[in-house]
Amino acid sequence: MSSLLTDGDLCYEERVVWLEDLENLDYVRQAIDKTTRRRSRPGYARDGRIVGYAELGDQASADPESGLYRRRVFFLLPHDRDALPDGVYRRGAPGEAVDPRTVDVQKTGGKTSRSQGGDMATADAPVRS
Prior knowledge:
This protein is mostly beta strands. It has strands at 13-18, 28-35, 49-56, 69-76, 97-98.
């Protein structure tokens, strides 16, 4: 599934739950996963760790064929900047990465100079594409 989301992909979100302190994270990766429940912490099958997830409202319905719900998850991989500050993402960030401070219910979040590894003095400035 594509890691580049639109607000339309998130129309049934009711709440975003963070499992870690956002002050320590310049960016998080976001993706839509298929899960068995609307709420509670979803299972996680990637390398790395889950750092947050969205909970869905009662109006969200499961896929009729699979019985699974489409929910947004936020995660980091072992080679991301939080674990390897001088690694491959010392500057720049993965395509699916967003500044977690810009994430809201039913909003995809965006890239900022902080998420892209820029000057922390301008960390809240959006990055223009």
